[in-house]
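Moderator note: this is an archived Q&A kept for reference. The question asked for a predicted structure of one protein chain; the sequence and the answer are reproduced below.
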Amino acid sequence: MDVKIKIRKRNKLQLLCKVLEDALPVSSSQLLSEFNLVEGHPWAETAQDKSTIYYACLYGVVRPEKPRKILEIGTAFGMSAATMLKACKTVQLFVSIDLGIYGRQLGADDSNIDFARSQIHAWCDRNKVLKERVRFYCANTQPEGKGDNEDIGAEIQRWHMIPEVVRLLQSHKFDVIFVDGKHTDDGLLNDLNSFWPFLKPGGLMICDDLHDPAEYDKLFPWVGDTWNSFHTFIQNHSSEITDYHIWNFPQVPPEGQTGKRPFGLIRKKRVRRMNSSNVSAGRLDETNNIPVTQNSIPVTDSLAVYCPVDQNTDKIILPNGAKRVWLDVGANECETTLPELYRSDDLVILAFEPLVEKCDLLKKKHLRLIALPIAISANEGSVNFYRTANNVSSSLSPFNPDGLAEWKDTKGLEIVEERIVPAMRLERILGVLPVERVEFLKIDAQGHDLDVVKSAGDLIHKIDKIKLEVAVTSAQLYEGAATKDDVISYMTDHGFKLLEVESQTNGQEENLTFVKAT
């Protein structure tokens, strides 16, 4: 996959892997023997084989994290869970999620989840670890209609429909997240997108089976799928990542190329609060970590949770008499679009405001204003949202220190909270509107305006007019934000022409209005 990824990598993960290649700290059989996992399950031969270094490698990358809280996607028979638990000095919380069909698929009598739970809870008893801290759940982590690599198990309940799982994930930030779920199609990408927000700043995300198509073509059914998912995720979340590495070393039988199980390692960027006294200099305060909270709105792929939807057509139900539709992304108080709503009897506005407390106020402003407490993003599921002291500068991206250094007025730009909010692509919204066209799309997404437009995909042709904001300073205020030239180039390539330019914020930003060229 040919992608351009802008990350100043520290290469610490690569260096760690090189050290482990020279001397692994323990053998896989030693780790698994302690949990009685070298026999009694379909992977027993793998557990016993001397060529298996997969679990020793996993232990080697997890142990330096000194994790207390770990989330695992893909339990299998508990061998990776055992490995990571052994890497913990103190276990505060371990959560493992699996479809629970793998054991019977491989001829075992019991569910693989039941087997893993039994063996690992027995280890907990022997080592005086509270079993309540080590939890296993049968749940589907893929979108509706999807299951495992062959989409078996698609009917199994989604994780976000299980209150206990949602409560646990929303209440904790995990030091390590290990993803070994669906490999084919966009399975890995879906899991990375869904659970990334639950990884703490500075935490480590691990996935496996990242086989390079150039080296492993046609050896495994997922070759190319996991590789592309990983690189797409890295590209889409580059502003949140400080380091990543693909480690083509972990091994299971047979020895050689067909036994390689490459790991993908991703280090989440540490985000720290900025004091008002040093924001203007663009310096990060190393002492004040940002509190991380969860919106009270559930993260789900069902639009019906947020607004009325016709069960027969799956279309959004608009108020009576509404014939014209405007979209307001990054609505704040709908100060741009609300005046037209008061003037028109046939207009409805869909307003997207991730700050749920602001969204609740919008719902009271007008009967034909449908306020949705979600972000519009390139990625669906849940995303990190950085709330600032003034609220209006809150964004899906942290500030760029170079941009802050030259910004004329930094009052209120302190990041005071990192919040996890629901997100959807604009094409999802456009596809369920019961109208053929959207008159006007207004965007004020604080550095993500062009990403909002891009999320419309091929349905951008349904929009007549688009107004968005861009910084025109030499350095962008938000990490990864598009420049004015980037915006104009994309809009021109997609059939729009620039109609109006409006300067604002002391000449540091411009509102650009585009209309269809024909």
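Archived answer notes: The first helix runs from residue 12 to 22.
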